[in-house]
Amino acid sequence: MPLWLTRLRRWTKLPAQTRSEMAAGAAERPVTLAAIAGAHGIAGEVRLKLFAASVDSLRPHRNFLAGDRTLALVSVRDGGQGPIARFAEVTDRNAAEALRGTLLAVPRASLPDLPAGEFYWHDLIGLPVEADGSVVGTVVSVDNFGASDIIEIEKADGGRVMVPLVPAAVLDVGERVIVDAAWLL
After folding, report:
1. Which of 180, 125, 117 is nearest to 164 (CA)?
2. Beta-carbon-side half-sphere exposure of residue 118 (alpha carbons within 13 Å)
3. pLDDT for 137-146, tens place per residue?
């Protein structure tokens, strides 16, 4: 599942040192910003399914990890059915169609730093989850189905539970995620 770039707004502040320690574990994993949805036109442009906040999130990156190869971004623009991109290595419609479903990722270190109290979802994956002072699981994904951000927690017994990222359910986020135990039933 792609790791979304969208920022998580927080209700408490963490010092920058804690944020950087939290991100250290995620620094090795590339962050998926988009997927190629298909060809656009006959000149090798591709339609993108965006996992970032906006098409502007793609512009600072010149190279994208695309499976076992790297694609050099030539241009990206808004299109009617999502962003349209051109890569140097893709010169015709057949090459563009062959990339359908390819995930486009960048190294975590290439993403800009965020202000205090905000995190990339990517940085939450793998954090331990505590409730009532005990470790109860690990964050395995972060999603948004429309109402609010949701973390999926894999519990120690192997079961999974989804908890909304709202102050009533998630009490704190730092080097670990502290959840109200009532949400884990």
Report:
1. 180
2. 8
3. 999 998 878 7
Distance, CA of 50 to CA of 33 (rounded, Å): 6
Judged by average pLDDT, the poorest of 10-19, 32-41, 108-117 is 10-19
Q: What are phi and psi of 35, to 5 degrees?
A: -130, 145
Encoding tokens for residue 41? 């036109």
DSSP strand pairing (177-179 vs 128-131): parallel
Following DSSP, what letter does each residue of the chain receive, concatenated? -PPP-PEEE-SS---HHHHHHHHHTTTTS-EEEEEEEEEETTTTEEEEEE-SSSGGGTTT-SEEEETTEEEEEEEEE--TTS-EEEETT--SHHHHHHTTT-EEEE-GGGSPP--TTEEEHHHHTT-EEEETTEEEEEEEEEEE-SSSEEEEEEETTS-EEEEE-STTTEEEESSSEEE-GGGG-
The structural domains of the chain, ordered by start, are 31-106 (2.40.30.60), 115-184 (2.30.30.240)
User: Could you give phi then psi for residue 162, rounded to 5 degrees?
Assistant: -105, 135
- Residue 109 and residue 68 in contact, taking contact as beta carbons nearer than 8 Å: no
Rounded alpha-carbon distances, angstroms, from residue 116 to 108, 120, 124: 18, 12, 15
In this prediction, residue 117 has a pLDDT band, given cuts at 50, 70 and 90, of low
Check pLDDT > 80 for residue 68.
Answer: yes
